[in-house]
Amino acid sequence: MKVVPLNIGIQIDCDIRNLTEQDYKDINDLSDKIKFYSLNDILRKKIAENGKKKYFQLFNEKIITKYLVEKSLGSDVVLY
C-alpha cells in the first residue's frame, strides 16, 4: 500500500496496483484527480450515488440468492 500525499492537508492510502490505466495516466494525473474530487463535493456525491444505484441493481438480493442456489446445486452459473 502506498500513501499518496495530497498537498491539501490530507493523505490517503492508495494501492495503485488495483487501479487501471483507464483510471489515470500517471501518478501526477492520479494526484490531480484526487485533488479535483476532494474539492468538488456535489460531483463526488453524484458519482457515488450513481455507483451505489448501479451495484444495487447488479447485486440485489434476488440475483444473489438465485446465484447461490444454482451454484449450490452444481450449476455452472455466471453472476453477471
Task: Going across the biggest sheet, name each strand in turn.
Answer: 1-2
> What is the tally of helical segments?
3
Distance between the termini: 30 Å
Whole-angstrom Rg: 18 Å
Would you mind describing this structure in some detail?
With 80 residues, this protein is mainly alpha-helical. The protein has helices at 27-38, 41-58, 61-72, and strands at 2-5, 11-14. It has a two-stranded antiparallel ribbon. A hairpin with a 5-residue loop joins strand 1 (2-5) and strand 2.
List keywords for this structure.
mainly alpha; two-stranded antiparallel sheet; 3 helices; 10% strand; 80 residues; disordered N terminus
Produce the secondary structure layout.
Blueprint (H helix, E strand, L loop, with lengths): L1 E4 L5 E4 L12 H12 L2 H18 L2 H12 L8
Summarize the structure.
The protein has 80 residues and is mainly alpha-helical. Helix content is 52%, strand content 10%. Residues 3-13 have low confidence and may be disordered.
